[in-house]
Amino acid sequence: MRVLVTGGAGFIGSHVVHTLVSAGHEVMVLDALLPCVHPGGGFPPFSPDPGVEFVHGDVRDAKTVDGALRGVDAVCHLAAMVGLGVDFDDAPLYAGCNDLGTAVLLAAMARAGASRLVLASSMVVYGEGAYSCAEHGLAATPPPRHAADLAAGWFEPRCNRCGEPLAPELVPEEAPLEPRNVYAGTKVAQEHLAGSWVRVTGGQAVALRYHNVYGPGMPRDTPYAGVASFFRSSLANGRAPRVFEDGAQGRDFVHVSDVARATVVAVEALAGCDALAGPVEPGLLRAYNVGSGTPRTVGELATALADAYGGPGPEITGEYRLGDVRHITASSERIQRELGWRAAVSFAAGIAEFAAAPAGRVPA
Questions:
Q1: Terminus of the chain with fewer CB atoms < 10 Å: N or C?
Q2: Quick check: 221 pLDDT over 80?
């Protein structure tokens, strides 16, 4: 297949491109190389590869997208601003890159008759995720945490009936979407736009809700990266990783090579290339959680990375960000059952590789 990868010069995108090429697919990359995401500038390391065509352009530009779609069989849409950003002044940039960019792409796909889409979504769409109370069982999604509680060190969401701390549960794809920050809101909007596109065009679409992705090639020295990148950058500069709250926030850290493989599995499922996967029903957006299946805490990540890197141990700061959620860990059983994918890289092996890899570079 000929596959267009938007954002293909980015962290996850570069790995998706490599995995697609290794699987024998022809790849077109469209990337704006925004300075806030690519602070070093320059073209991606795969650009000389004869199996990859590179277009330096913005997914928000319809003319550029129209050209990039020529002859394309499927689209992997990864172009997006990620992370919490710096402050609310970033909101127009997030909405423009993520939601306007998605709308322009989907309109161009409708014009071109391109009918297969894999959308890079995120576990942030669930907000605080799912919880249970020891006394009252499964609980409703808790409301956003208050600044006064966080400042007092009360980090756990509490049962709205008895006031006791709630225990996190694995979130299924059917859970309500409860975005708690600007980035999360834009990812929900992307899914809604893709859902409208499949209903109108009869196309096939998959939304992959990536969990906390880490691994070689994570950007450094930018506020738009993930927590693993922040910790790795601190260690590279001889500083202790600074862990917010008490470090007990629950997450699912999944290696980027596993995420790239899940993305390619989804692309091939849309085209019926994979004998394990049935076709995705036209006119319906199908969502899949993509995680390791083993929840960890942010403090565990910081400690494991510091140990593997040989740097100072983490500093638990008690600081907080209002846009953060306390726990978000989801079940990846659906993608295992329907597409035959499961994570293969263990946490220990993945952290050891990440600690040893050059920061900000994708290995050849």
A1: C
A2: no
Compute the distance between CA of residue 177 and CA of residue 328 in angstroms, rounded to an integer.
Answer: 12
What digits encode the pLDDT tens for the residues 140-151? 778 888 899 999
Q: What is the pLDDT of residues 331-354, one digit of tens each?
A: 999 999 999 999 999 999 999 999
Provide DSSP, 102-126: HHHHHHHHHHHT--EEEEEEEGGGG
Largest CA distance in the chain: 62
- The confidence score (pLDDT) of residue 275 equals 42
Is residue 200 within 8 Å of 345, Cβ to Cβ?
no
129 to 85, 171, 185: CA distances (angstroms): 21, 6, 15
Across 85-124, b (16+ Cβ under 10 Å) vs e yields beeeebeebbbebbbbbbbbbbebbeebebbbbbbbbbbb
Contact 297, 248 (CB under 8 A): yes
Q: Extract the runs of DSSP E, i.e. beta strands, from 220-345.
A: 242-243, 250-251, 253-255, 285-290, 296-297, 315-316
Amino acid at site 320: Y
If residue 207 lies in a helix (H) or strand (E), which one and from where to where? Answer: strand 204-210
What are the b/e assignments for 276-290, b being 16+ CB within 10 Å? ebeebeeeebbbbbb
User: Which among 342, 184, 207, 174 has a CA at the least distance from the CA of 280?
Assistant: 207
- Per DSSP, the three-state class of 138 is strand
Say if strands 130-133 and 167-169 run parallel, antiparallel, or are unpaired: antiparallel
Measure the CA–CA gap between 197 and 190, rounded to whole angstroms. Answer: 10
Residue 216 has pLDDT above 50, yes or no: yes
Lowest mean pLDDT among 221-235, 291-305, 315-329: 221-235
